[in-house]
Amino acid sequence: MASDETVDTPGAAASPPPTGGLEVGRVVDGFRLEERVHQGGMANLWRVSHPQHDEPLLMKVPRLRPGEDPATIVGFEVEQMILPTLSGPHVPRFVARGDFTHQPYIVMERIGGDNLAPRADDAPLALDEVTELGARIAAAIHDLHRQHVVHLDIKPENVLLRGDGTAVLVDFGLSRHDALPDLLDEEFKQPMGSWPYIAPEQVQFVRSDPRSDLFALGVMLYQFTTGELPFGEPRSMRALRRRLHVDPPPPRALRADCPPWLQELILKSLEVDPARRWQTAAHLAIALEDPRQLPLTARAQRSAARGLMARLRRRYFNLGQPSRAPVPRGARVQMVKSPIILAAVDISEPAADLAAQVREMVRRIVITEAGARLACVSVLKTGLLTLDDYEDAQGANRQVRHLAALKHWARPISKQLNLDEGRLTFHVLESSDPAAALIEFAQRNGIDQIVMGARAHGAVRRYLGSVSSQVVAQAPCTVTVVRA
Amino acid sequence: MKIALLTDLHANREALEAVLRHAAAEHVQRFALLGDFVGYGADPAWVVDRARAMANDGAIIVQGNHDEAVVRGSRPSMRIDARHSIDWTRGHLDAEQLAFLAALPLSHHEGALLYVHANAWDPPKWSYIETRHDAVRSLHATECRYTFCGHMHEPMLYHLSGTGKAGEFKPTPDVAIPLPPHRQWLVIPGSVGQPRDNNPAACYAVFDAAEAQLTYHRVAYDHATTAAKVRAAGLPQDLADRLHDGI
After folding, report:
1. CATH 3.40.50.620 for the A339-483 domain, yes or no
2. CB-CB neighbours of A49 under 10 Å
3. CATH architecture label of A117-334
4. Model confidence over A49-67: pLDDT tens digits?
5. Test mutation, B139, B159, B160, B161, chain A, max A CBs within 10 A
6. pTM here?
7. B180–A99: do the CB atoms touch at under 8 Å?
8. ipTM of the predicted structure?
9. Is the four-CA dihedral A145, A147, A148, A149 of positive or negative sign?
């Protein structure tokens, strides 16, 4: 326990720091240190190899010096606790950990790609790249929240891209897991996280709101779009607190070709009140799916930061905010309370009865959860051959017709359920394989439940029935099949 | 080594049987029984016999305040229903069973692990750990990294870092929680026989010593049968009613 006491007691200068003696060629629990690839304030990163692991590996070793900021150590503990619970393509795979009584470390998959800091340096970026990065990072954040974890330190340095473009989140030293003790709770006197990116509630020491990560994503998208940080780089608590009551300059004031929908999307992410932001990362991602559908509010038109009166008003309203705001519900619950329901609608005439029944089922589901969103999807079946120009023009017409029919289908419930404010989106997919198109759409957009019809009898059933059974078998979410 | 932590069994046979079945499915290798085998419930003899058999098979076992009270017998100074309950329980235990309860140690200490019914600072006084402050007091009273306590009927986890920062956590069932040994941990698994957090399912926890991991569990059992037995025994009505709501 001697080294243990060194770790936990600042000022215990007598014992040598346990990180001492790490050098190329040394073997720690079977992992051979090959090269130090990063020396950071909190930790060093080593490329390591192991005879039983073929993949590239990274070892993270905390920098522990007597009198060191306890955040370094506790943050490392937090990462050791959380990373092993995570899986999937959006996090580095956990391999091993070493405890504080010997040599503390975490070994994980080494992601080949670069982090996004260089892209942030190159900003402003092309608008296509901004939306592409937004969708990819949102998918990664959604997958993390699904696994009960709020990251709380989303910034360009902590997002990596794999070779195929998949976003990977790293560094869980400040993260919060819904179902594990929060070792950082009440530990520190200053707000934790990277100050340019953290949400107003993080400034007020709230550590359980997944929407904090969406604020940070909003800061990144603002930065990618304009080349500026919306709240600068605060160096004092006073400067940090400005985001509680001062609006950032709207992106369009800094970049004329920023479309109104992108400004809407970014400023919605940067709302002070989490309840006015995107409620889940999937909601943001699905808005990026077809941004022209995004309902534009006053946010989209703002041309300058709001005036003194608005600031004072906000300041006044924000004074009591910590007590006014409900206690955040944690990553997973927030997601469960804000599901996206996909209605797969066959708008062809013979299926009218069934489409009405699907609509009724959708109504029952959406009405149960005030935060639910509805994505109405119709698949336009295409041939396998390449379309020529004539068919292409016909195809565009069919798209428009489908969209109109889809909106008509949704009308009775969109009014009844008051599905305005972007709680309702429409999507016409084109594919030769309707089931595969629905499954892929559900996957990409973090859909929680698919509602679709299956015909009761007749020749068509064999065909359509196979669509629903394929979706049931392969979709990544709950599927409700409605029979006429 | 997976150790099942069971406490506050309170003469509830159905709950104990359900927990033992669950623990077997979890491949538990050892049991720790943290006291209060009797009191409140209608099956004291069965539960004491079972505890004795488990102790003979190597289970760790400590005494609780209800066990002590039954051994000593009721006092005129006690509340009437407490007196009634103790007299009733004594009347349903034979001399051998009472002797077994009387001989139980107040705490048990094995390496970095401490097992005690109420707290580490003064076990025979039976003070409760109700706050973070109480937990820190208990953790300061022992060198052990891990303390396992009963007495409080609601599951809870406290921790203390070497820099003196303490935290508390209401556990989520069935989620493995890493308990690294450079912190001190105080584990309250919650009551097997009389849960009180508005959830009637029996509480217990499994500590995996090799992995330094703790998992709390909730186990549904047939509390209607247990409550019927309590009523049939003529014990106070509310001791039966509360099992239904977990209060």
Report:
1. yes
2. 15
3. Orthogonal Bundle (1.10)
4. 999 999 999 999 988 766 6
5. B161
6. 0.85
7. yes
8. 0.85
9. negative
